[in-house]
């Protein structure tokens, strides 16, 4: 029992020795992070939209609303029945879909159903932007929610600059996303809005993710390089 209890401490000590005990950090492999995050993203974000549109095309607005709500709450019930945890993304999807469905049903408008998340996207863009002058970059909060990072690493000046710049990048991404969505929502059919807008937004998001990952890897190389001399000393 004593040996087992000291193993984590030894592992942390070895990691600190390799990195100088200060700024070094080795994140999980990108593939393992994607395997963890992608199913939750599909379940909580992509699937409700796809289910809504399929039912909307076959059954009309009310059918689409019922199907989207049933999908989300059915997923929650299925997870509880199997003893699995419910992701925060799925819970947020449940709250969002319910509110949107109630308003859309009350107004009998599919546009209202999609207008709310678009306005939410604009709010997120403003939040990312506002976090920069406050010195509390939202990109850092999102990243540390996904991958816990040592405080010493996060305090490094280069890491701070990286997250400030990435917060600006994602503010721009969400703002462009909102502008595209609003224009298409009021100038195109719901079908065109869903598929064309989804493709454009996905491409934009993929490019931003690629830039973020590339920038983070460059940042890691520099920070871990700064920590290496401490190991030699």
TrEMBL record:
Asked if the Swiss-Prot or TrEMBL record annotates the protein with the keyword Transmembrane, the reply is yes
Name the InterPro entries on file: UCP010219
Skewed-composition ranges (Basic and acidic residues): 13-26
Lineage at the top is: Bacteria, Bacillati, Actinomycetota, Actinomycetes, Streptosporangiales
| Family annotation (Pfam families) | DUF3159 (PF11361)
What is the protein name given in its UniProt record? DUF3159 domain-containing protein
Q: Where is this region: Disordered?
A: 1-27
Segments crossing the lipid bilayer:
50-73, 85-106, 112-132, 162-186, 192-216
Q: Does the keyword Cytoplasm apply?
A: no
Give the organism the record lists.
Actinomadura parmotrematis
User: What keywords does the record list, in alphabetical order?
Assistant: Membrane, Transmembrane, Transmembrane helix
């Amino acid at each position: 029992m004593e040996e087992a209890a000291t193993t984590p401490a030894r592992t942390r000590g070895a990691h600190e020795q390799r990195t100088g005990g200060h700024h070094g950090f080795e994140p999980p492999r990108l593939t393992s992070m994607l395997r963890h995050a992608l199913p939750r993203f599909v379940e909580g974000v992509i699937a409700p939209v796809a289910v809504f549109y399929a039912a909307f095309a076959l059954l009309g607005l009310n059918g689409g609303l019922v199907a989207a709500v049933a999908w989300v709450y059915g997923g929650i019930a299925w997870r509880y029945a199997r003893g699995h945890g419910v992701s925060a993304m799925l819970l947020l999807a449940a709250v969002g879909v319910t509110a949107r469905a109630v308003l859309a049903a009350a107004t009998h408008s599919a546009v209202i159903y999609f207008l709310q998340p678009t306005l939410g996207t604009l709010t997120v863009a403003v939040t990312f932007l506002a976090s920069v002058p406050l010195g509390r970059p939202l990109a850092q909060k999102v990243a540390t929610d996904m991958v816990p990072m040592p405080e010493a690493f996060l305090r490094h000046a280069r890491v701070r600059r990286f997250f400030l710049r990435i917060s600006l990048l994602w503010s721009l991404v969400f703002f462009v996303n909102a502008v595209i969505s609003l224009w298409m929502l009021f100038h195109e059919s719901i079908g065109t809005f869903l598929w064309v807008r989804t493709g454009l937004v996905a491409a934009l998001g993929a490019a931003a993710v690629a830039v973020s990952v590339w920038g983070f890897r460059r940042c890691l190389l520099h920070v871990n390089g700064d920590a290496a001399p401490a190991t030699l000393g």
